[in-house]
Amino acid sequence: MSTRTENAIAFSPRRIAAMVLRYWYLLRSSWPRLLDLIYWPLVQMITWGFIQVYVMQNAGFFARAGGTLIGALLLWDILFRGQLGFSIAFLEEMWSRNIGNLMMSPLRPFEFIIALMVMSIVRLAVGAIPVSLLAIAFFGFNLYGLGLALVAFFLNLMLTSWAVGIFVSGLVLRNGLGAENFAWSIMFVFMPLACVYYPVTTLPVWLQPAAWILPPTYVFEGMRALLINHVFRADLMVEALGLNLVLFALGVMGFLTLLKSARRHGSLMQTGE
Amino acid sequence: MPAAPAIKVERLVKIYKKMPAVDGISFSIAPGSITGLLGGNGAGKTTTIAMLMGLLMPTSGRVTVLGAEMPRQRYRVLHRMNFESPYVDMPMRLTIRQNLTVFGMLYGVPDVRGRIAELAETLDLTDLLDRPTGKLSAGQKTRVSLAKSLINSPELLLLDEPTASLDPDTADWVRAWLERYCRERGATVLLASHNMIEVERLCARVIIMKQGRIEDDDTPERLLARYGRGTLEEVFLDVARRRDEPREAAQ
Predict the structure, then answer these.
(1) Cα B71 to the chain's mean position, in Å?
(2) Of A116, A102, A259, A273, whose CA–CA distance to A174 is shortest?
(3) Top-confidence range, A159-163, A195-199, B207-211
(4) CB pairs under 8 A between A and B
(5) How distant is the Cα of A60 from the closest Cα of chain B, in angstroms?
(6) Alpha helices, H only, B82-206
(7) B10-69 pLDDT, tens per residue?
(8) Confidence of residue B236 (pLDDT cuts 50, 70, 90)
(9) Which one-letter DSSP state was computed for residue B11?
(10) What would the pLDDT profile of A217-264 be if each residue is shown by its tens digit?
(11) Bridge-based pairing state of the strands B81-84 and B34-38
(12) Are A26 and B57 in contact (CB < 8 Å)?
């Protein structure tokens, strides 16, 4: 086997860099795309920030639990924007009818996935960093004050967002742009069950086991424990990580199965609706 | 000993919901040759090419490309082949240079910048390199697609209607350039086209498909002689209407 062939079989960081570069070129060339990254997080942060200010002035408990609403909002945005950043980068290929070029190039599925993961972090950073700084300026809420806990929250939320993003990309590959809506809405399935704005104990007892299946539940519970009781629940983070690894593996398996099915049914040749 | 075929297709079948799109075809293509794949709409040309690229899984049969079994071993050879098709586009907002840089990196081209300059010079794209791909004319876009398909100096090139939206002068220039590329690189080309003049000029061999099957397979000269026709277009029409006649009569 020639060296060139061997190289082609191996994992290639250069191909991942090529894809990241492709999305970076696109972001750089389009101010509406850049604006979109910051617009909603900013609007949401301001709205929920003022709600938080209002309840803190009128409720003793929330006065003690300062920052839980805005903290939940910022963490929810990491989860939601992380998945959206992954899925939109993927959808760009479908919208531009470029997916055939990529699927017939030496780019491996897992290299493609890694490039999308990198881009979801880049897109999230463009939106979330300025908004988190504005949260300090407007409402005195310093997300970075969470310290190392923030790293654990971020890692777990990103893993969930990628797992969901990978699976949704598989759905779009297999079913065409008709499945695009999943990319925009699937994360909202998590919202009531993951207990973003309220503790798990708020849910009916029979529904609580379902909430504990979802890794983000542990993160939001952990955030409340930190902000209200000033305790970092490492046990919750470890459990979330375990569930996330399972979810991520399921997402990748789902993607590969759907990709195989797309190859069988000819969906990769018809990337429209 | 004769060289191993660049493409070997054995009893290839693709069935979509009980409808055969490709129905048991077999053929081999010698390395360094230019072969035309002719057929009307729905004849199975694009499906065949997709299976050659590993984009589509056959229902049954076997495809070997540059010694690798497709789609199972496709990553062993995808960097040695490339394609051009009107069914795919390149990202419109990216400039030609950006698009070619991305594909150059994907295909593992060692000196991407140099290769882009070389292709731009050859395909007359130098002045357009920093223009967004979406702002090009149809002819310019076709040249960019060709540049992408040649970025890795492929040993095997699969072309689907490569001159479809070009004016006659540019189309003629592209054909001449393709001929030269294949001669100098020793590349194998499989060309799906409706343009009979193009096929007659470029191809040493023509495979005619109809309803998923190979209806004829020979050199252009022998096809013309056998059908007693002056042009490939007349041969194509003879083949296309041959089996339809009894069906039409019955109707």
Answers:
(1) 18
(2) A259
(3) A159-163
(4) 110
(5) 53
(6) 96-106, 112-122, 138-150, 168-185, 196-202
(7) 999 999 888 899 999 999 999 999 999 998 888 888 899 989 988 899 999 999 999 999
(8) confident
(9) E
(10) 999 999 999 888 889 999 999 999 999 999 999 999 999 999 999 999
(11) unpaired
(12) no
Q: Which of residues 165-194 of B touch A (CB under 8 A)?
A: none
Evaluate whether A2 touches B74 at the Cβ level (below 8 Å). Answer: no
Q: Phi-psi category of B140—alpha, beta or left, where left has phi over 0 and alpha has psi -120 to 50?
A: alpha
Would the pLDDT of A44 be above 80? Answer: no
A108 touches chain B (CB under 8 A): yes
Least confident interval from A57-66, A107-116, B83-92? A57-66
Sequence length of chain B is 251
Note the pLDDT of residue B111. Answer: 94
Domains with residue ranges and CATH for chain B: 7-90+154-250 (3.40.50.300)
Q: Which residues of B115-153 are buried (b: 16+ CB within 10 A; e: fewer)?
A: bbeebbebbebeebbeebbeebeebbbbbbbbbbbbbbb
Question: Is there a cis peptide before residue A41, judged by omega within 30 degrees of 0?
Answer: no
* Cα A127 to Cα A34: distance, rounded to the nearest angstrom: 8
Tell me the pairing of strands B156-160 and B188-192. parallel
- For A207, the token pair is 């529904």
For A263: left if phi > 0, alpha if psi spans -120 to 50, otherwise beta; the answer is alpha
Judge whether B214 and B25 are in contact, CB under 8 Å: yes
H or E segment to which residue B27 belongs: strand B19-29
Mutation to test the A interface, candidates B45, B47, B52, B88, most A Cβ within 10 Å? B88
Chain B contact for A106 (CB, 8 A cutoff): yes
Nearest-angstrom CA–CA distance, A123 and A121: 5
Q: How far apart are CA A37 and CA B63, in angstroms?
A: 45
Contact by Cβ (8 Å): A228, A62: no
The ipTM value here is 0.86
pLDDT tens column, A141-154: 888 888 888 899 99
Distance CA(A124)–CA(A120), nearest Å, equals: 6
pLDDT of B244 over the 60 cut:
no
Looking at beta carbons, which pairs linking B68-72 to residues 24 or more positions away fall under 8 Å?
A: B71/A263
Chain B residue numbers touching A115 (CB-CB < 8 A): none
Query: Identity (one letter) of the amino acid at A65?
Result: A
- pLDDT band, very low/low/confident/very high, at A187 (cuts 50, 70, 90): confident
Cis link prior to A216 (omega < 30° from 0)? no
Alpha-carbon gap: A202 to the closest alpha carbon of chain B (Å) = 48
Tell me if B167 sits within 8 A of B148, measured CB to CB. no
The verdict on a CB contact (< 8 Å) between B91 and A96 is: yes
Q: Give the pLDDT confidence score for residue A62 in this predicted structure.
A: 58
Average pLDDT, chain A: 86
